[in-house]
Amino acid sequence: MKITKSMNILHLTHTDINFDSRILKEMQSIAKSNNTFTVSGIGVIRNEAVEYKNNVDNISIYSIVLRTRKWKFLPEIARHICSFFELSIKVTLKSHKLRPDVIHCNDNLLLPIAVIIKLITSAKLIYDAHELESNKNGITEVFGKFILYTEKKAWNFIDALIVVSPSIEKWYYKNIGKKDSEVVLNSPIFEKGANVNDSTYLRDHFSIEEDSRIFLYIGILVTGRGIDLVTDAFKQHDLKSSLVFLGQGELSDELKVLSQKHANIYVHDAVPHRQVVAVAKSADVGLCLIQNVSLSDYYCLPNKLFEYCFAGVPVLASEFPDISQVVTKYNLGKCCKLDSDSVYKAIQELENMNELPKVNIENLYDLSWGAQEDKLIKLYKKLIQ
Questions:
Q1: Tell me: the pLDDT tens digits for 331-347?
Q2: Which of 43, 71, 131, 204 has the fewest beta carbons under 10 Å from its own?
Q3: CA–CA gap between residue 1 and residue 68 (Å, rounded)
Q4: pLDDT beyond 70 at 38
Q5: H/E run at residue 370
Q6: Helix (H, G, I), strand (E, B) or coil at 315
Q7: Among the listed residues 201, 161, 151, 199, the one whose alpha carbon sits nearest the alpha carbon of residue 181
Q8: What is the CATH code for 8-187+368-384?
């Protein structure tokens, strides 16, 4: 599907775009839909001490530096407030120079700024909610209410909404109001007809025996991801399978200590996003046990679910509405309740199967990035017409 009108598209985020695979995929998809498009992104630099501009495949990325983050002489809350005002000023000035026709706002923090830029430039505004922003893990109830208040105040200025699951779309419809919207899954780039090649990477890397099935956890190593439930299961001496964690986070050191005490638990450092599916191919079962610590988690369709399925690996996943629907519809594995006994029994059942469920990636194009790209371009086409 091609968009025929020349446009200046601007993505906004308070994260570093260079390390955000979803934003990069969206920018590249829109850029290649029409060679007359100018696609830019403004984000916040993650590591460097100077401002820089980077060009990647016909898109431009501007990464700003927040000097106020280093003002250690201020109390933390005061430093955050100063950083927000610095971010607002720098993003607004840079956006005004770029004169966008479409503003694609990728997080709630920049939504008020996106509205201001829309009023200045008369651009169309897309709000891309990567989670259920006002009810997600890691934020307080007060801050959640503030986010919801911000969304409600900005709602009339938003021209289109993008969400990451059907349940989150329904939630926004019910609690704020309907919009032209699209569900764009956070799935990997996949071409229909691609084959899954057998791999023994993890087995070779950790010298895991052939008769030991490998259960793989991919993602951030933090609480609320079922890590305690699966480690409790693998501490039991009657399991013959192995557990591998692939990622980094606040629980990394704790898990490395645990791996030294238990011969069937392993920790692998995080790998670049483009390598995740390739590594996952060498596992036998993927673990997607998100815990119900927020509505955003309960309604989620996490990227790790799609990484497992496009690696051809069956999953053990949370028994949540959207996850269960996808796992059942595409025969991706099984779901279970999120308690120690249920998780242990589900792992034991998968371990004892003579043959694990087969994931047929030829039937998964609707879950691939190619399908999400079609929906994204369709939304843009409707918006600019």
A1: 999 999 999 999 999 99
A2: 204
A3: 44
A4: yes
A5: helix 369-384
A6: strand
A7: 161
A8: 3.40.50.2000
